[in-house]
Specification:
flat; 5-stranded antiparallel β-sheet; 52% strand; mainly beta; 4-stranded antiparallel β-sheet
């Protein structure tokens, strides 16, 4: 496999590593997450997918929209209730629901420090 990209994010007791490699007829995208549990135990999970080369142009187009589509929450809030991508001041990204403020999708936890938001990109909506 030809290495294309790596990214490592660390917070508290969690390390997440994104790996992108060229492989055969596609691009391998893998995420490895290591969490430190109580008593020094480690929980490690890896998930991956191979994106066919024919789908790469659409993926690049969607990521380009994603990277440039963040809206500053202090300047503008959504006009409709619904699902959005949200980012906090630490750079974490999550799926959130907007109603009376933003809520994270998992567990209904309210995010009080949302810095930016954006509509969910089309590629993610299609579930591709």
């Amino acid at each position: 496999m030809n290495h294309l990209f790596n990214y490592i994010a660390q917070s508290n007791h969690t390390q997440e590593k994104l790996m992108v490699n060229e492989c055969g007829m596609g691009v391998y995208i893998g995420v490895n997450c290591i969490r430190e549990l109580p008593y020094g135990e480690l929980d490690e999970q890896t998930t991956s997918i191979v994106v066919p080369l024919s789908e790469i142009p659409e993926l690049i187009q969607s990521l380009s929209k994603f990277a440039s589509g963040w809206i500053d929450y202090k300047i503008k809030q959504p006009t409709e209730k619904g699902d959005y991508l949200i980012r906090d001041y630490q750079g974490r990204v999550a799926l959130g629901k907007y109603g009376n403020g933003f809520y994270m999708e998992s567990g209904g936890e309210k995010w009080g420090m949302v810095s930016h938001w954006m509509p969910i990109p089309e590629l993610l909506e299609k579930g591709a």
